[in-house]
Design the sequence.
């Protein structure tokens, strides 16, 4: 192989280094220099094409799919009004039946995973300027069937959909008098014994509380008055009977 | 395949491929917001058709095909004319040296200025890791045509960067 052919191969498929190319590189300094220059360029090219990806994009996509699936209407629903009414009635009366009840170890594992996954980063994002406007916050909660009182709404710095043990929920950062608090709202998940404290690895603490619908987990620094926070927040969330998730 | 199995499969695909597909989308659309929408639509379509994916090893190519079709179907006409690279790439990590960042930014600008017929196979190769054969199949070209295009793409990028070599902030581009 001559040097021109060697360079042509580096320009067309730099990742595919054949035994023949490796041998040429080892044999001749000019080939080695061409290979080194190609490596440097490929590193630079890789940096250039690797544009930053929005934080949590995979989770957003997974959640969106979950929501679409949950909201998918059976084909027969629009055909007969009576069937539609029945379906709605069944859906409403059995709503509580679809709430899930993980064991406490399962819930502890989920909260620990969730916090480790993006808790500190989300908190950091929310610590600067207001990261979610009130319309965004209302929209997220509305999709999950929750009304949020204005006093609590004013404390929200950031809201986004997030995974829960049973589908989509909300990940919220609140600015409270006790410092920044992370709240995970899990609309379909309830714990067997509420409230429950869950210690986290990095000096944070969590408390999970069953709500009228679903449950919420609060995450704060050790020392925060979690029961008081939970009590306060619980009174500021309401669940209209007609709302669905 | 039951729902739980489909869901597990879908979640695994999303976690594995979404970052690279988003990056591919950015270079295809020249706009991160459109790329985000494009990737979201791609995965919604993937969910609806996931039963058709028989070979897990073909998942990457399958997703790329869905994304490119979706782009051609809906997004291509929304794409603004050539974008200023500053609008494409916003906040980013600061771990590179200022020289490295300058090189990277110059190369990005040069990438955006490449004709799509050169940029697309190059990005499929560098981001998605497709072989020449796979790119040829995806773009419905001969392998020889793909090799010519990725060669020309690199050549053009190096040409764009060459004038800056004198300033000492670009590697030797033999």
Sequence:
């Amino acid at each position: 192989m001559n040097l021109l052919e060697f360079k042509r191969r580096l320009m067309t498929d730099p990742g595919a280094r054949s035994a023949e190319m490796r041998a040429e590189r080892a044999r001749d300094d000019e080939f080695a220099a061409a290979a080194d220059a190609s490596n440097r360029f490929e590193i630079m090219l890789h940096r250039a094409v690797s544009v930053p990806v929005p934080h949590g994009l995979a989770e957003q996509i997974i959640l969106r799919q979950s929501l679409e699936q949950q909201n998918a209407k059976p084909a027969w629903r629009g055909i007969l009004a009576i069937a539609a009414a029945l379906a709605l009635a069944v859906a409403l009366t059995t709503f509580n039946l679809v709430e899930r009840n993980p064991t406490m170890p399962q819930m502890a594992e989920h909260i620990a995973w969730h916090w480790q996954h993006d808790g500190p980063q989300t908190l950091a994002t929310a610590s600067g300027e207001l990261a979610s406007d009130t319309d965004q916050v209302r929209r997220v909660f509305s999709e999950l069937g929750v009304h949020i009182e204005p006093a609590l709404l004013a404390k929200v710095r950031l809201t986004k959909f997030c995974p829960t043990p049973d589908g989509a929920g909300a990940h919220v950062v609140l600015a409270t008098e006790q410092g920044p608090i992370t709240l995970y709202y899990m609309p379909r998940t309830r714990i067997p014994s509420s409230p429950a404290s869950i210690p986290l690895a990095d000096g944070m603490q969590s408390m999970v509380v069953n709500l009228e619908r679903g449950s919420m987990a609060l995450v704060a620094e050790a020392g925060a008055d979690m029961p008081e926070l939970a009590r306060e927040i619980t009174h500021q969330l309401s669940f209209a009977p007609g709302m669905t998730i | 395949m039951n729902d739980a199995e489909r869901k597990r499969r879908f979640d695994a695909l999303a976690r594995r491929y979404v970052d690279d597909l988003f990056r591919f989308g950015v270079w295809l659309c020249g706009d991160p917001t459109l790329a985000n929408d494009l990737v979201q639509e791609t995965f919604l379509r993937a969910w609806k058709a996931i039963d058709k994916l028989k070979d897990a090893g073909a998942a990457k190519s399958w997703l790329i095909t869905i994304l490119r079709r979706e782009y051609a179907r809906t997004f291509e006409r929304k794409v603004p004319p050539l974008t200023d690279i500053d609008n494409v790439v916003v906040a980013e990590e600061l771990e590179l040296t200022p020289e490295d960042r300058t090189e990277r930014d110059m190369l990005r600008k040069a990438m955006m200025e490449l004709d799509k017929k050169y940029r697309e196979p190059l990005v499929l190769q560098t981001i998605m890791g497709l072989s020449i054969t796979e790119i040829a199949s995806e773009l419905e070209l001969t392998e020889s045509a793909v090799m010519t295009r990725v060669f020309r793409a690199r050549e053009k990028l190096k040409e764009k960067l060459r004038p800056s070599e004198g300033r000492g902030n670009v590697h030797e581009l033999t």
